[in-house]
Amino acid sequence: MPRGYVQVRHESAADIGAVAKIFVHEATGAPVLFLETNDDNKVFAAAFRTPPPDDTGLPHILEHSVLNGSRRFPLKEPFVALAKGSLNTFLNAMTYPDKTVYPVASRVAKDLFNLMDVYLDGVFFPRLHEDPTILMQEGWHLHVEDGEPHIRGVVYNEMKGAYSQPEARLSRALERALYPDTVYRFDSGGDPDAIPGLTQEAFVRYHEEHYHPGNALFLVYGDLAAEEVLEFLEDRALRHFSHKAPTPLPPLQPPFPTPRVVLEAYPLPEGEEKGETYAAWGSVLGEEARDTLWVFALEILAYALVNRPAAPLRQALLGTGLVKDVYAYVEADVRQPYFALVGKGIPEGQAFAFFAAARDAVERLVREEIPLGLLQAALTRKLFELREADTGSYPKGLVYLLEALRSWRYDGDPLEPLNFSAVLEDIRMRTPTGFFTDLLSRLFLRGTHQALVVLEPKPGLAQAKEAALTSVLRHSFASLSPSAQEELRRRTAELVEKQRTPDPPEAKALLPRLALHDVPRSAPKVPTEVIREGGGVILLHPIPTRRIAYVSLYVSLASLAPEDLFYAGLLPSLLSRMPTEAHDAETLAELLDRHTGGVSASIAVYERAKGKPELHLALRGRALAEELPRLAGLMEEIATGTRISAFPQFAERLRERLARLESDLVPRGHLVASQRLLAQMSPAAAVLERTGGVEHILWLRALLEKGEEALAAAARETERVYRELFRVPAVVSFTADPDLVDTVRTAFAPLLASLPNREPVEGVLPALLPAADEALLSAADVFYVAKGLDLAPLGYEHRGSAYVLEQLLRLEYLWNRVRVEGGAYGAFARIDRLGRLVMSSYRDPHLEETILVYDEAVSFLREVDLGDEDMHDLILGTIARLDQPLSPPLQGERGDAEYFSGITPEELDARRAEVLATTPKDLRAYVPYLEAFAREGRVVALGPKDALIAHGRFVRHTNLLPGGKGF
Fold first, then answer.
1. CATH for 529-754, among 1.20.58.2050, 3.30.830.10, 3.55.10.10, 2.170.120.12?
2. DSSP annotation string for 865-907
3. What DSSP line would sit under 211-261, residue for residue?
4. Residue 411: left if φ>0, alpha if ψ -120 to 50, beta else—which one?
5. For residue 65, which of 171, 137, 143 has the smallest C-alpha distance?
């Protein structure tokens, strides 16, 4: 045991394959949770209680700012330096309603300690105390150039982007309504209207009050020695502090005598008179809902009644015609968790009819009792998800640590959420006793701690606020004395100069680094065995999966005519969610929950270096080994017996699909703009546009406006496309434990035999979108700007150095020019293996300025001086990005993608060797391509309707506002 600590717990956390230990640092009282496991993807996190005192976004801006230089690492942004030059598998920070978390992860122990070193120094000893330009850059400042004052700042623009999404406004309004007397009435992220009220004095004081070890929770996961971690914590941070009490828990909100009703508005762009209404019905159960049992129970209830296919409350509400889409969520990252039922696309004036219909449906469910089979199936699904722990590309340990914080943050047991089998067994025993029916009744019928929130569109609201802000800024600036005006200009110039001045070499040399010889020479591979049987192909990926099998059935879209792709794009919203010849939709959903981890469909498109792209509909399923025959039978039922054209479900699924696609437009604005741009260059992207992009949305809007007769005809066409797709040989992929692969093949042999063996006829690919600068008109308050060019006609040949160039452009150039100087939340650069170069920005206050930055990238590349240490960091960061660990199902999907794309293990190793050997000369060889990019590249921007229309660049305008049409 290291000196200075006492161990207070040591027990098994068998459900996650770990041994849990809790230590307390005696001098400061800081607790440390250590989850010892054989997982080599190691994670460290420091968490602080950070209740927001107002709406200025103090916790969020501080989260950004502590990583902008510290006592031992006086760089402008050590965070970016780490992103460029470490083998991290996760590097970020997160602000929650009342806590802030700083996690890092790496598979290399030395690298993790390097990351911990920089993060610990940043959170405890940041330079923000003596450097006011950090708040100016990351939070807000009055930017004065050419005599015109503007508000700029990274978080300010990030939150402007967030507040331009009606659902974000709705959730904030709901929390204000449910907790009017506690810290949860404030937005920890920051309200753009309030952020400019934050002062440097309040900023520094908040850090001093909340960022000390007594208010911290430290969490560690992985194959590390606890003693080494504890000694490191003591040496790098804790020895500098004495005991200090933690920040108190947020006070409880007393229940209301009657539910609260709140009406709020969201802005419509100028010229738009109509929009959709949103409504949320939220309910707080009580402080006991903090316990893991109640959190799990609420999540199971939300899934069973609303979020699963054919869920009874969802079906009842969709059947009224009062709403286009319904979903539920549980917010458990607050002291008193709440359950929310949300309706989207409600006709004007019908919000309270929606609430009445919801109450009627709840009363009926309580009166008749929620079906036991439905609840048991949802409970089984929850257990499967927890056991599987499919975290995608996130480190598994990070998810476990965040789960532990859900309880530990409020002085609960951090191990309770991790020992989930015992909790779910308790729920299983209660389920037949009416437990869930009583829970639903307590939430919405007997409870009074509720809020009904209606969010309605209001024309002119954004314009009025923007005009008022401009007027205030101009008046305030004009009222200043000449010397005060000059001081503001001086501070602006000082900030810009700092942003543009590189860190001195001696400061960069202080960062801990890995050596390149620590990097494996060979690229990580997904084992893939290709077996050809009859007309089909089987792909086997034998990897450890914890006795879960993952199956993907790929059927080709190649025979479809271009107009049929619109109908194929509907299938992901229909398969597994519609009735089949054997079962109605509700029974099918229950069987899937009872026996599998789910079956879903998606459009999967892959590009080869030569030849046409591979176009597929992928039907994916997962199940435990003992349930494989059931999974195979259900996937066969879905693949061959779905009643696609069944009404009214077909129309309901289409309305849900449109509502969700439209909701995703602004949050994914940079991806939407980038794909739209790529559809001018890539047949594969043109297919994705028709099956799920902007083209698909416009087609689906027009279809739904035509009425029932047109929908019935579309249902028949979609059924025809579905039948055609499953008449051709399939490629099936199995990902499973090595000793389970033969069992999976045997279980799925009948399904493969049931598919007709007819060779597909090659169809015609859809035409590329006409090359043009395009404006995607939306209600967003900020821009998402993409510019791109196909480099292949210029002789581009793909090399590993392109990945290093991406890293250089993204983190050295675009980060500084678009994010740091411009105030956007993010900026990206990518060159795909066929030579399409795209740069994009996220939540960006600028349009023309950002395009100019893209065009000036060639000057940057010509002039940048890259020394040995710079190249070392760029190469290391590039390898970290290429080697990002993946969960078992994503590993299988990567193996499938490599097969369809024709990527061989030899090619992966060749590209890696080229990355490791990249020199400054190799990077400067891309100058001619960036010259052409600046000269010939096309721009697609998603953003505020008025600003985009006013800009003269765009020859094509596409209206993405709900109900809008292209023009």
1. 3.30.830.10
2. ---HHHHHHHHHHHHHHHT----HHHHHHHHHHHHHHT--HHH
3. -SGGGEEEEEEES--HHHHHHHHHHHTGGG----PPPPPPPPPPPPSS-EE
4. left
5. 137
CA distance 947 to 785: 13
The Cα 389–Cα 300 span in angstroms is: 16
Any bridge partners for residue 733, and if so which?
539, 552
C-alpha 516/C-alpha 902 separation (Å) is 29
pTM value is 0.93
Q: How far apart are CA 828 and CA 187, in angstroms?
A: 28
| Strand 536-542, strand 731-736: pairing | parallel
Q: What type of residue sits at position 99?
A: K
> In 10 A of CB 544, how many CB atoms?
10
> Which own/partner contact pairs does 656-661 have at CB distance under 8 Å and 24+ positions apart?
656/318, 656/324, 656/325, 656/573, 657/570, 657/573, 657/700, 658/324, 658/697, 658/700, 658/701, 658/704, 659/324, 659/325, 659/344, 659/345, 660/325, 661/692, 661/696, 661/697, 661/700
Domain 260-458 matches domain 774-959 at the CATH topology level: yes
pLDDT tens, 654-708?
999 999 999 999 999 999 999 999 999 999 999 999 999 999 999 999 999 998 9
Distance (Å) of CA 393 to CA 90, 330, 411, 878, 890 = 9, 24, 30, 16, 8
Cα–Cα distances (Å) from 14 to 33, 132, 424, 529, in that order, read 16, 48, 14, 33
**Per this entry, what is the length of the chain?**
967
CB within 8 Å of 628: residues ≥ 6 apart = 549, 743, 744, 747, 748
Q: Mention the CATH class of domain 774-959.
A: alpha beta
Q: Which residue has the tokens 């047991």?
A: 413
How far apart CA 874 and CA 743 sit, in angstroms, is: 45
- The per-residue DSSP string of 463-527 comes to HHHHHHHHHHHHHHHHHS-HHHHHHHHHHHHHHHHHHHSPPPHHHHTTS----GGGS-SSPP---
DSSP string spanning 602-632?
A: EEEEE--SSSSPEEEEEEEEEEEGGGHHHHH
Strands (E), 770-920: 774-778, 784-790, 826-831, 836-842
DSSP secondary structure letter of residue 726? T
Specify the DSSP class assigned to residue 551: E
Query: What distance in Å separates the CA atoms of residue 353 and residue 340, rounded to the nearest whole number?
Result: 17
Task: Look up residue 902 and give its amino acid.
Answer: G
CATH fold for the domain made of 5-248+482-508: Cytochrome Bc1 Complex; Chain A, domain 1 (3.30.830)
Give how far the C-alpha of residue 103 lies from the chain's centroid of Cα atoms, to the nearest Å: 16
Candidates 3.30.360.10, 3.30.830.10, 2.60.120.330, 3.60.15.10; CATH matching 260-458 = 3.30.830.10
Local structure of residue 844 (DSSP, 8 states): B
By annotation, the residues acting in catalysis are: 63, 138
pLDDT digits (tens, 9 = 90+) for 588-618: 999 999 999 999 999 999 999 988 899 999 9
Q: Which two tokens stand for residue 946?
A: 């008025």
Chain-centre distance for alpha carbon 246: 31
User: Is the Cα torsion angle 334, 337, 343, 349 positive or negative in sign?
Assistant: negative
Domain ranges of the chain: 5-248+482-508, 260-458, 529-754, 774-959
**What stretch of H or E contains 117?**
helix 109-124
Band of pLDDT at residue 468, cut at 50, 70 and 90: confident
Distances (CA, A) of 275 to 77, 320, 663: 42, 20, 13
Q: What burial class does residue 949 get, using C-beta atoms within 10 Å of its C-beta: 0-12 exposed, 13-18 middle, 19+ buried? A: middle
Tens of pLDDT, residues 846-873 = 999 999 999 999 999 999 999 998 999 9
